[in-house]
Batch of 3 targets.
Target 1
Amino acid sequence: MRAQFVLSEISVGLRRNLTMTFAVIVSVALSLALAGGSLLAREQVSTMKGYWYDKVQVSVYLCNENDAESDPNCAKGAVTAEQKQQIRTELGKLRVVDKVYHESADEAFKHYQEQFKDSPLADSLTPDQMQESYRVKLKDPTKYRVVQTAFSERPGVQEVQDQRNLLENLFNLLNGMNIAALFVMGLMLVVALLLIVNTVRVSAFSRRRETGIMRLVGASSFYIQMPFILEAAIAGLIGAGFACVLLLGGKFFLIDSWLADKIALINFIGWDAVLKVLPLLIAVGVLMPAVAAFFTLRKYLKV
């Protein structure tokens, strides 16, 4: 009988405040979808960093005849065969170095033509203008400065370049977007909490006669508060369900069906990462409104 009464009170409360309940559901859904998206974005950035940092190399560019005229680091002229051999030998002795690849000027020219064939400079360059280089794969990509310190001022070396720097701007942009999403998520959560508080207040005010009668017949505080708390929890659960649908739809339609085909170089997160986030969203979607309703009732429902 008591359970039936509580369920009937929940049904009445949801119908009386249908508009505000709908607003709570939408705000909870959007805020939790942003929260889940932010968590997945962080996971994606970490995955990309691990994938690309493992593949980036340190490039030791060697001086050529053209650099001798324009670059102070190559003022002593183009690199000699003896200097190249010495650099190659010392690179192999460094403990942080995994592998060393040599790229000749002709190979550099060929790679440039393949990568920048649509560039207006592609037809004006010649192989003798390209630089020889040693491409160094490190055991730990963060140990770049070991190679830089050892070879940046070496005769015959024009520049030591860490390819990680080329990726830092991309990762900084992604992290910035993630922070912006977290900020918007925070605003949406505040809006959701305010809507929950107002919904509970209106519901408690509209049923003050019923709660007064229940108090007179000796109903406990918890029994009186239960319908209001469950109303908020149900609205939050529905909102969390919509948030889960949004994340699943984003993974299927945006990533798997579109981005994965357009950007084949990125190793996107899998379904396991998405499924791990969903229980957290549901838990937050239920607990956040229930806790907010509980503390609101303590203030506005004198039981």
Target 2
Amino acid sequence: MRAQFVLSEIGVGLRRNLTMTFAVIVSVALSLALFGGSLLMSDQVNTMKGYWYDKVNVTVYLCNKSDAKSDPACAKGAVTEDQKKQILADLDEMSVVEKVTYESQDEAYKHYKEQFGDSPLASSLTPDQMQESYRVKLKDPEKYQVIATAFDGRDGVQSVADQRSTLDNLFELLNGMNWAARAVMALMLVVALMLIVNTVRVSAFSRRRETGIMRLVGASGFYIQAPFIMEAAVAGLIGGAVACGFLVTARYFIIDHGLALSEKLALIDFIGWDALLTKLPLILATSLLMPALAAFFALRKYLKV
């Protein structure tokens, strides 16, 4: 096959259908940008989960005198020194526990004042109303239920709380946004495929006389189809390159510079450039193969003589 002929036919096809080619490039770029964005969002959510779940604790709250009067879980009275020692000993013996930290009522009151000092309720609280607690660091944050089962309802224990629950709503929201992005991405991919198929059909129809002659003189099917397939692949590859450029630009100006979210939201462990760069080859490969395959199947009917 003469490469010069194929390249010239690609140029002719792109020029003849310039408007539709531009539409293909834009739709492929948008759909693949959403595709890459959804992959990066998944990585970001997983990174945040690993970062925060590794830092949160399971807290075993102990009964105080106030709880003994108002909380059914503390009906047997405030926690005793012997109960505290036994709870601590049992925690230390558990294989899932990495570290146990005791927080006294005075320490709990101090931390509350630091976090909620502006609250009207803060001025009415006293240290003896706060709860003593054991902050338990787990080797595996998923093993929270082991602690809850062992200590919930135990004498001297008011409740067992997993700090992960405060993060679950955030991660559910992020996952919901990610699935919404994937749904839009799927819709855009369908639109892109329809545009590619229509562009190839129009191009094939406009050159049906030439392709018919080539078939009559013995040209192979692949020789006839190659310019159309490569025409779609080139348009898709341009769209993929635009999508990659968009993702790189967004990462640079939103995370690192411009908005500089990495500085303003220091509590969020943003994914690095390596995560983004590993997605770019996949986006480019998809942008090349998807239009080529769509064109191949569309041409099987429209290039028959």
Target 3
Amino acid sequence: MNSNPKRPALRLAAVGVTAVAALALTACGPDITAGADDEATSDRLQAPSADKPEGEITIWDRSGDLYEVFDAVIDDFNKKYPDIKVNHEAVDINAKLQNTLITGTDVPDGVFLDDALVGGFADHLWDLTDVLAPYADDIAPQKIDATTVGDGIYGVPYDLNPGLLFYNAAALEAAGVDATTIETYDDLLDAARAYQEAVPESHPIHLEQSPFLGQLQLEMYASQLGTSIADADGELRLDSPEYEQILTFLDTVQSDGLGTRAEYLSPTDIAELENGNQVFYPWAIWFDFAPQQLLPETSGDWRAMELPAWEDGGARSGAMGGSSFVLPKEGENADLAWLFYEFLMYDEAGYSAVWGINDIYPAGLNTSIPAYLPAADPAGPLFDPIEALGGQDLWEVATTAGAQIPSGTSIPSWWNGAVDYLGNDLQKMLDGDLTPAEVISSSTDAIQTNLIDRQ
């Protein structure tokens, strides 16, 4: 996750076309799922057996501050593996990866990739089930689900992006609304109505206007309920009580005038956050970037808490976005690249360097938390309290929330393509043109016909 958390989310939006094209790409690669058990096993990456592994690896990351974070860890990696040379390249992955995998030319050994894209490239990637086995029980289950295709795991989980409820504590206190009493989404509606009564011009709850980000947020809500747009076999499950409940909530926010309709951190969105008209923002942890850098008037007024539950005692968080590291099968030294990612994610020296205090992030990287649960210990913060959140210990809030994210939230290879249907239908509902039932029916039919049946 970069320091500007708009980038992790919006880069997914920018590659919607690439992801849809990746559906065709999967048909071009070798068949790694069919055949006898020994064939499937041969597609599982194995760690190097040498006592002192040596060689050269090429690692692709996106340019920017997160590239710099990973780059700075290479020296620490080489203290453990002095004979592995790391060529670290800043690459436009969305533009280059597909053609590189198709042609098999200059294929990197490891690539940083959005979770939503992993399934579309799985035929060209190593199954990491065996190398991840020593750590799998300690990785957030949602991240294992997000990178699982069939019987294989195709990504080394990087970050966990727990959903949180950000709220303007100062504005709510001035209006006589106690946000800390919010435990369910019904409570959130009650609090929004109370705030609107005190501040009549307000529309307290954020309603996302981007089809892509709206769908991403919808899946955060679904993740809380242990579901997602499709199951592990790629079968649609939109037509369910869970999605009906979520869509009904969003429709209520819209129809009752309780929502500010704006695209995430657009000028309109920022203005309504700064003037106190929008005071509740259910979003991933990376919204904390806003009060730190984009909300000078209300910086220090904001706080974060776990998401409300859909029912009493329910999960208080869901996943929203995320990335992993993948290892292409045509890379020359993918086994050595695995050692780099193993160090980065599962060695204390590695993950402490990524999320802890460093030259790039003097207070630590606070727009995500590790997907590796021993690294995400609530009692062992890797980043400092955040002054823009009034000195709040966001680490404790986020790790506690993250531990509640249910498993069972698979990401199908056609996820980005579904934005043309589900994402757009969600916006039509917020326009008042569709009911929740019509969103479910329309999107289910369109996704099945235009995406799933054409695979």
